[in-house]
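Lab notebook, bench 4. Still working through the backlog of constructs that have no structural model yet. Next entry is a single chain of 225 residues. Request: give me the structure tokens for it.
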Amino acid sequence: MSQIKICGLKRMEDIEAVNEYRPEYIGFVFANTRRFVSDETAAELKDALDSSIKAVGVFVNEPVEHMAKLVAEGTIDMVQLHGQEDLDYVNQLRAAVKGVPIIKAVRIDASLEVTKEREQEILRENQKLIDEAKALQVDYLLFDAKVKGILGGSGKNFDIAGLPSDEAIGMPYFLAGGIGLHNANELIQLRQPFGIDVSSAVETDGYKDREKIKEIIDAVRKESK
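Model written out:
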């Protein structure tokens, strides 16, 4: 069964919703986006989070010391990287966070439609991106939609047909990018990812919506049984 991650939590109401409906993971965004949370707010939210739910910190080219501090303080249980991090950076991070799992985001161009004529070219391009991310020796990949000027949480899909086979990917991964009630189960049936990452689709007017969180978690778990 695919795991569920609800990303971009900012309010105590968000924590109350996930504590009730129990996704496996939630995300705190420390990057400069509209979903940004401060260290202090994230710590307060984590204190109220059910201990069975893992908190993932989402970062873009963040100083290693800051991530290590958040891990040491118990604010986050995993690290998710969305920047231009290289192997030296990841090695420093791994040494600093001592066994905490690391996710590396791979941005798949959301503007490309995988036609029969371009399928092999797009698969090769995306495989190259995946191989570069795997070379960082992280624990998980996360495939998100690449949208100009937005680092994540755009609500846009990428064409899943451009994603290489699970054998070619060769490691566990999350699917992200415009995933919601309308397409989550179809994507899971097509690919059986380790997890799905949901953000925009469970929001109303820019805030997490308790009923939408319930709906997608119920739907995914019912379909997976």
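Notes after review: The radius of gyration is 17 Å. The mean pLDDT is 93. Flag for follow-up if needed.
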